[in-house]
Amino acid sequence: MLATAETLAFDREHLWHPYTSMTEPTPVRLVTGASGARLTLTDPRLGYDDREVVDGMSSWWAAIHGYRHPVLDAALSRQAGEFSHVMFGGLTHAPAVELGQRLVSMTPEPLERVFLADSGSVSVEVAMKMVLQYQRGRGRPERTRMLTVRGGYHGDTAHPMSVTDPEGGMHAMWQGVLPTQVFGQVPPRIGAGPGYVEMWASHLVNEIAAHRSELAGIIVEPLLQGAGGMWAYDPECLVVLRDLADEHDLLLVFDEIATGFGRTGHLFVSELVTPDILCVGKALTGGYLTLAAVLTTDEVARGISASEAGVVMHGPTFMGNPLACAVASASIDLLVSSDWAADVGRIADRLTAGLEPLREAPGVADVRTIGAVGVVQLDHDVDVVAATDAAIEAGVWLRPFRDLVYAMPPYVISDDELDTLVAGIGAAVRAG
């Protein structure tokens, strides 16, 4: 086992971190333990060893049950005692079948076909391939473009980057390299009023009219846009999208990688409006292993089968990994057997009450919450290092980005930990 200083030194010299320069990396902290809603961090730079902090991020929104949960630990161990992986080509196994059964039973009824993918962005890749192959199978190969909205984020692989906001988004540098998609306006915020939804809908009608012969489908993050800006919008917009998709023979894709499994207060936002294709990930395994799923309808499956390939042209090596499937089923059972809605509501109430006073703080442009999500938007880009250090000093782990200091804590977080989290967000806002 390397000493802390050696570990951090090797990390700095050799390991890339997400959205971080290799030549001028920002500081990282060494995780030495995790339990419940807390992480144990060591950072000689700040002069602390094995400091416990409240995790405000759920490890990028995935660890909804917290860390070292005995039920999930046991599921992983039990499956590892049988077999850890087999190829999914030509073989199947109980963990994949059982997970499929759970996903089909807990999502809206038409979504009965399940593709198990490696990660969230890969599930979006697969969903977009499905859309294109469906249109080919229906005799419309000229339909190759997607309609989406500004402010969205769908992952870091090629096709998901193409439907991420091309100007203010994380992948603006790839304009001219990626497929060119059609972008509508950002949907109006929750509570904006029916007039705003109608104006937005009229704009989308015009976009579709201008590109109707090219469009294959519509893809959005329903209700809450995540890494594109943490923007919560009017649910009536989903009805508009469903109606437009039906009217113009487009497939509607909901990317619920961030919103699924209760985060917004709905088990899935797709309960409000049913898409043709649904992507889920992140919290699917409770944050234990990477896994995602794409669910679709019989009609879509028949259209894909009618294309010249006849099959979905995607087959990852670790598709349907038994360890990931086993822990995902355990995570789903743990969620649905708990009073998750009450937990999300409790978190929402405490975040709303605790963050609202920050609206008057210098440099704050907006404060908003939805479900177990709290967001403070600044009128400038966050000084990430300063804000993160301040949050840790207050006993909280946060990862701000752009102009946002936000939290998506594990559902198991206690009220006392929520109070600590709110104080840490305040510290980060003042420092950032």
TrEMBL record:
Record's keyword annotation contains Cell wall biogenesis/degradation: no
Family as reported in the entry's similarity comment: Belongs to the class-III pyridoxal-phosphate-dependent aminotransferase family. BioA subfamily.
Oligomeric and partner information: Homodimer.
InterPro entries given in the database record: Aminotrans_3, Aminotrans_3_PPA_site, BioA, PyrdxlP-dep_Trfase, PyrdxlP-dep_Trfase_major, PyrdxlP-dep_Trfase_small
Gene Ontology biological process terms in this record: biotin biosynthetic process
GO MF, one annotated term: pyridoxal phosphate binding
The gene coding this protein: bioA
E.C. number: 2.6.1.62
Residues bound to pyridoxal 5'-phosphate: 120-121, 255, 316-317
Alphabetic keyword roster: Aminotransferase, Biotin biosynthesis, Cytoplasm, Pyridoxal phosphate, S-adenosyl-L-methionine, Transferase
PANTHER family with a match to the protein in the record: ADENOSYLMETHIONINE-8-AMINO-7-OXONONANOATE AMINOTRANSFERASE
Site (Participates in the substrate recognition with KAPA and in a stacking interaction with the adenine ring of SAM): 19
Modified sites of kind N6-(pyridoxal phosphate)lysine: 282
Binding site for substrate: 60, 153, 282, 315, 399
Pathway: Cofactor biosynthesis; biotin biosynthesis; 7,8-diaminononanoate from 8-amino-7-oxononanoate (SAM route): step 1/1
Reaction catalyzed: (8S)-8-amino-7-oxononanoate + S-adenosyl-L-methionine = S-adenosyl-4-methylsulfanyl-2-oxobutanoate + (7R,8S)-7,8-diammoniononanoate
Name of the protein this chain belongs to: Adenosylmethionine-8-amino-7-oxononanoate aminotransferase
Cofactors demanded by this protein: pyridoxal 5'-phosphate
Localization (cell): Cytoplasm
Matching Pfam families: Aminotran_3 (PF00202)
Enzyme class, broadest EC rank: transferase
